[in-house]
Amino acid sequence: MLAIIGGSGLTQLPGLHISRREVVRTPYGMPSGALTFGQLDGHGIVFLARHGYGHTVPPHLVNYRANLWALHAQKVTHVLSIATVGGIHPDMRPGRLAVPDQIVDYTHGRETTYAEYGNGDPVTHHDFTWPYCDEMRQRCMAALAECGEDFVAGGVYGCVQGPRLETKAEIERMARDGCDMVGMTGMPEAYLAKELGLCYAAVAASVNWAAGRQDSALTISGDQIEATMAQIMERVRRVLLSVARL
Ligand code: HPA
């Protein structure tokens, strides 16, 4: 079964014919909200709003372990994350969608593993060379192509701590590091999915130029982000119908 984790701008999924909602408790605490089960274009899926249905959970306080555990416990095998990002690379203009293939993690202080160390269990190191599941990435890209989207087929997602936006110097450093886009929620989500054996990929939606990328005198306007987000999420919904079908 496919799960969709909706990010900022996608706290609900119009077009989803809801059959039930379920509050799932996990050994790691409560997920961001109830899991919503339903049919998308006739295909059964589960939807979860990463920041809660009222968008009240900031990126650094999302219980990523509980979210993915809850989905896994409901027999989810594939996860599509919708993530809003700021564009660093010139190709990542606001309004553009991308299917990143790499991650650089700048977060700190988040719970990053299900492994319980200190109780005698041996230390394990999961391979994370390719953070995203290729099968899910291909499915997303096929859906984007079907919808006529001029998307970017790859890219490095730099995950920052938030909730603040970055300084111009931080974005310049991220560009030197090879990051093409910046967001706040990609990690540890992608790694936890890997630990659980979930086939996980993200569709990133650029909703603004990252700090200093457009015109260094300009600051990032929340209103502008909201407007781009509203416009782009209409398109994302169409892509999701396609992903559910494929
Ligand atoms: N920075 C970090 N996260 C974001 C941004 C940004 O500019 N835009 C959307 N998510």
TrEMBL record:
* EC number(s) given by UniProt: 2.4.2.1
- The UniProt record gives the binding positions of phosphate as 8, 50-51, 185
Instruction: Tell me the pathway.
Output: Purine metabolism; purine nucleoside salvage
Keyword Transferase in record? yes
GO BP term, pick one = purine ribonucleoside salvage
Alphabetized InterPro entries for the sequence: MTAP, Nucleoside_phosphorylase_d, Nucleoside_phosphorylase_sf
* Gene3D superfamilies according to UniProt: Nucleoside phosphorylase domain
Q: Which SUPFAM superfamilies does the entry link to?
A: Purine and uridine phosphorylases
Which reaction does this enzyme catalyse, per its entry? a purine D-ribonucleoside + phosphate = a purine nucleobase + alpha-D-ribose 1-phosphate
Q: Name one GO molecular function term.
A: S-methyl-5-thioadenosine phosphorylase activity
Role, per record: Purine nucleoside phosphorylase which is highly specific for 6-oxopurine nucleosides. Cleaves guanosine or inosine to respective bases and sugar-1-phosphate molecules. Involved in purine salvage.
Q: What else is known?
A: Although this enzyme belongs to the family of MTA phosphorylases based on sequence homology, it has been shown that conserved amino acid substitutions in the substrate binding pocket convert the substrate specificity of this enzyme from 6-aminopurines to 6-oxopurines.
Q: How does it assemble?
A: Homohexamer. Dimer of a homotrimer.
Q: Which family does it belong to?
A: Belongs to the PNP/MTAP phosphorylase family. MTAP subfamily.
User: What is the protein named?
Assistant: Probable 6-oxopurine nucleoside phosphorylase
The organism named in the record is Parasulfuritortus cantonensis
**In the record, what lineage is assigned to the organism producing the protein?**
Bacteria, Pseudomonadati, Pseudomonadota, Betaproteobacteria, Nitrosomonadales
